[in-house]
């Protein structure tokens, strides 16, 4: 845990789904391709499928229509049907960041309110860790969160002309 | 070249101090308790300002510095919206009759 982890407040959401806890967990994880917005991806090819491998250490990745794969993160904790925690290894250039210490993460927890109703609590935290990813991204990004991450990277990086 | 994961720790500390303060601070206030000179603090503030993360304003015979409120809020807001919409899509998928793929 870094002292900087609290610089940007986590994004939190909670919702109730009218299904058993096991199903809610399965649809969120193994069924992620069913609900993921098709325009939210980073690969060069159009999105064919989003896959979360159902185990700790499993990959979260996209597969393009040409079969090419592009990683998004790793399953850090796989604890069905209670919770799943995943690293968000996408940098400000919308590319995979292999170093998890430079990445944020999200956690989803599932609580049975009844046999057919589940409360889902979502948290995405540690955004500021992306900021230290390096200065080279600064000129490469043009908008969205990338520009902000780049600004943050510039501000938090060492004083030197670093090349990625 | 490997960039240190947390970047420059002094600049990070300065940024944190401004974030925690929640009000404009002068260089002398920022430097207090940090093991760096005031000119060094000023240099770090300059970088933060150029990056759009910190803004300053004149006050009497000195300048006051504070976090640019929009800089971090926009990043967070992007993900707030992104996940809110995605979780609604998840809810619809979970409650629809098809089996998860």
Automatic annotation (TrEMBL), chain A:
Belongs to the AHA1 family. This is SRPBCC family protein. Residues 19-154 form the Activator of Hsp90 ATPase homologue 1/2-like C-terminal domain. CDD domains: SRPBCC_CalC. InterPro entries: ASHA1/2-like_C, START-like_dom_sf.
From TrEMBL, chain B:
Residues 1-87 form the HTH arsR-type domain. The keyword Transferase does not apply. The keyword Acetylation does not apply. Keywords: DNA-binding, Transcription, Transcription regulation. NCBIfam families: HTH_metalloreg (NF033788). This is Metalloregulator ArsR/SmtB family transcription factor. The lineage of its organism: Bacteria, Pseudomonadati, Pseudomonadota, Gammaproteobacteria, Lysobacterales.
